[in-house]
Specification:
Layout lengths: L20 H6 L4 H6 L4 H10 L12 H6 L12 E6 L9 H7 L1 H15 L3 E6 L4 H16 L15 E6 L9 H8 L23 E5 H5 L1 H7 L1 H6 L9 E7 L5 E5 L5 H6 L13 E5 L8 E2 L23 E6 L4 H15 L5 H18 L5 H14 L14 H15 L1 H10 L17
Parallel strand pairs: 1-2, 1-4, 2-3, 5-9
Antiparallel strand pairs: 5-6, 7-8, 7-9
Helix pairs in contact: 3-6, 5-6, 5-7, 13-14, 13-16, 14-15, 14-16, 15-16
Bound molecules: flavin mononucleotide (FMN) and iron/sulfur cluster.
């Protein structure tokens, strides 16, 4: 059993006053920033590289490597920015909101460390519009950091100006995509940009910009507290640290858990420390392992470790850590229809395969679910999905951004792994799980 040896990211959650400057400082807060300000910026990036910290926003990209793409000031004299992705809208994912609520100064200290390393004097935190309470806690923490001489003209007394602003989104999932986020920050419609150029070179207002997830940045104080080697060692071969995952669906004890990367999916679902298994008499049918855009797993694939590279052989991904368990009473066709509707509604409409393909897939899945489908619909469904993003996943779809893949890959994985369920709907001309209270779902019903 791979129980977490030591809490890293959540160790102070729930302790009295932890969300305030006083509480944070009493437990050693801002001491790592102080330490880092004595180092050379390049040294800081090297430590982050050594720690094997990988982005927690979904792609698992190595953080130190991303920082090193920012051109030197000799090559590019424009200002540089740090943008924190606190949009957290991937269905099944709820971890960043708890960092903002329970330990906002941990992320703010991380921001100080990252901005100093990058030479960025401005940081924008782009927070999900619906985060009313977390945003209020964060706003208060930012004000406290200014009032206590952390941010402002001098970063903790060092001759380095740093200003930090929170910007609230307006409820669009696409604004979590890093370039859409930058467009939105610039006051424009959240339409993703074609890459390259990548934000590290041409980002916010045309200047070099690093976009990092909340959890990624909140890990920095821990790395400098105990060292990059320690952080790397407590993780997996190429992924340092621990992970926050959100367990939901038919488990007895859903929640947001900090896990060792050595923990398996099975342990997460069944262990008493975590999910405690399924309700009496139920068994696992399917698991979405990394937010709804991650290709689905079957009950036979649960030995996978919860680290970034372990999901590749299963043609899935660790993603944003949103783990959704479906039991044997679940209609997987209906579940996929729910997922497909989401991506159809959230497509920004810039690229034809995504704009037209996502609603088309949603309509075909609905047709099958309602018993009106034909066998040929399954081929059409796979063909439409394939035109958006090829299967098996190669990491690059046919669209401007990865929302195309996010909608197409689940469809391909569900149909491939649960084909019999789809065929049963077609041959029986009804949902074998019975009538459902559909309600009104708008255009993509
Ligand atoms: C459609 C879409 C939505 C995304 N939503 C989020 C999000 O809510 N939060 C997040 O951190 N990353 C999100 N990402 C990933 C970001 O584009 C980006 O990779 C991430 O913020 C980088 O941070 P990291 O390197 O620290 O993971 C999304 C990507 C796509 C394609
Ligand atoms: S893939 Fe979809 S969401 Fe992304 S830019 Fe194209 S249309 Fe917009």
């Amino acid at each position: 059993m791979s129980v977490l040896q030591e809490k890293v990211m959540t160790r102070d959650w729930g302790k009295p006053g932890q969300h305030t400057f006083k509480g944070y400082q009493e437990r050693g807060g801002y001491q790592q920033l102080k330490k880092v300000l004595e180092m050379q910026p390049a040294q800081i990036t090297d430590e982050v590289k050594k720690s094997n910290l990988r982005g927690r926003g979904g792609a698992g990209f190595p953080t130190g490597l991303k920082w090193s793409f920012v051109p030197s000031l000799e090559k590019n004299t424009k200002p540089r920015y740090l943008a924190i992705n606190a949009d957290e809208s991937e269905p099944g994912t709820a971890k960043d909101r708890f960092i903002l609520e329970f330990d906002p100064h941990l992320m703010l200290e991380g921001i100080g460390i990252a901005c100093y390393a990058l030479g960025a004097h401005t940081c924008y935190i782009y927070a999900r519009g619906e985060f009313k309470h977390p945003s209020a806690v964060l706003e208060n923490a930012i004000a406290e950091a200014y009032a206590n001489g952390i941010f402002g003209k001098k970063l903790m007394g060092k001759d380095f100006e740093l200003n930090v602003y929170q910007v609230r989104g307006a409820g669009a999932y696409i604004c979590g995509e890093e370039t859409a986020l930058l467009e939105s920050l610039e006051g424009k419609k959240g339409w993703p940009r074609l890459k390259p150029p990548f934000p590290a070179v041409v980002g916010l207002f045309g200047c070099p910009t690093v976009v990092n997830n909340v959890e990624t940045i909140a890990a920095l104080p821990r790395i400098f507290e105990k060292g990059a080697d320690w952080f790397s060692k407590i993780g997996a071969a190429k992924s340092g640290g621990t992970r926050l995952v959100t367990l939901s669906g038919t488990v007895k004890r859903p929640g947001t858990y900090e896990v060792s990367m050595d923990t398996s999916m099975k342990e997460l679902i069944f262990d008493k420390e975590y999910g405690q298994g399924l309700p009496e008499g139920r068994s696992v049918k399917a698991v979405i392992p990394g937010g709804s855009s991650a290709p689905v797993l079957t009950a036979d694939e649960l030995d996978v470790k919860l680290e970034f590279d372990a999901f590749k052989p299963l043609q899935s991904m660790a993603g944003s850590g949103g783990i959704i368990v479906m039991d044997d009473s679940t209609c997987v066709v209906r579940s996929l229809w729910r997922v497909a509707r989401f991506y159809a509604e959230e497509s920004c409409g810039q690229c034809t395969p995504c704009r037209e393909g996502q609603p088309w897939m949603a309509r075909l899945i609905r047709k099958i679910e309602e018993g009106r489908g034909e066998m040929a619909d399954l081929d059409t469904l796979m063909h439409v999905a394939q035109s958006i993003a090829p299967w098996p996943p190669i990491g690059l779809g046919n669209t401007i951004c990865a929302l195309g893949d996010a909608g197409a890959l689940p469809v391909q994985s569900f149909v491939q792994k649960f084909r019999k369920d789809f065929e049963d709907h077609i041959t029986q001309k009804r949902c074998p799980h019975g009538d459902k209270p559909w309600g009104s779902y708008g255009e993509f019903q």
